[in-house]
Design brief:
The complex is a heterodimer of chains A (about 190) and B (about 190). Chain A contains three helices and ten strands, in the order H-H-E-E-E-E-E-H-E-E-E-E-E. Chain A is mainly beta and about 190 residues long. Chain A has a single domain (about 25-190), classed as Lipid/polyisoprenoid-binding, YceI-like (Lipocalin). Chain B is mostly helical. Chain B has one domain (about 15-180). The mean pLDDT of chain B is about 95. The chains are: A mainly beta (about 190), B mainly alpha (about 190). At the A-B interface, helix 3 of A face helix 2 of B.
Amino acid sequence: MKTAARIAIVAVLLVLAAPLRAAVPSLSEVAGRYAVVASGSRLAFTVTAVGGPGIRGRFARFDGTIDIPADSVDRARVTITIYPDSVTTGQKRIDDFLKSDAVFDTANEQAIIFRSTRVRRTGEDTATIEGNLTARGRTFEETFHVRLAEAQGGNLHFHVQGKVFRSRYGMDVGTPIYSNVVDFDMDLASRRR
Amino acid sequence: MSDFRFRNTKEGYGLVAIAFHWAVAVLILGQIGLGLTMVRVADQRLAFNLIQWHKSLGLLILTLIVLRLLWRMANPRPLPLASLRRWEKAASTAVHRLLYAVFLALPLSGWVLVSASVLGIPTLVFGLFLLPHLPVGVSEAGETFWRLLHRSLAYTAIALVTVHVLAALRHHFILKDGVLRRMLRPARRTEP
């Protein structure tokens, strides 16, 4: 009797857990041009430090477009523009330092731009996006890992992760105390135009 | 060279005490220059790097001062020159004690300042090893207090070093006695 009860409980839990994973819509359902919207989006980053708390920050201002063709995800295109003068860490002195000529140099560089060059589907709801990231006048190819978190009506919600070596963009100040690797962890909410 | 003494005698300083003195002198002057520069440069990348050097040099100075004090305690103190007047001896003793006190307190207050800072920037000494933060409260108010104390001690050190250098120059160029020479030329071994 006890065994039967346990099986029943496990079965109920499995049934309850199943809907947590969003059903992946077909390409024809989601095809179109989307604009990244601030509401529901979060562009966060982390730079670890040896023996210290490191830096956790986010960008408050950004925009972007996502084009998804009806025939193939591989031909999808993404453009994201981040405005580095909107960087915030919760500590004004760190914000000022990040905006200074040591890091983003926001007096001279107004935008960080990512333009995808290739999208590869890696799973039912995942893909890798390769593209050119331009910051402080330097452009390098970067790769981000994307998961479709939610698709509802005309809205798509993506979770995006990626690692960027900041030294390539002339932002190596503080290494090796602070890691050369910037970990991006982003939620991108987009609305069909 | 081989007849120079490593240890102090009653007549003069040994090679080790002299090496400690000039090593600390050069480092302190460099550290003061670094400290004044790093808070004034507009280039934030340069400022960050200078601050890291300042922290590393501070630990080196603290280490040398402690070793120097230990060496001083383990060695005889050279007697003051007979030509010195009583007030000169008293002033010399007071300035030397204050110099030791300030040179100990200055790097320690810097260490506390770094530890209390809300920025939490780690100290990687000369890029070689991590200096742990001291167990003090982290707050804006604490950081402001320790920065004020560190800065006040730095200006006190500048004043004391100025007095010390001027006194040494007075002895050498005006009184023409052997006070400065004793800190330039180590005591020699006496013939048996």
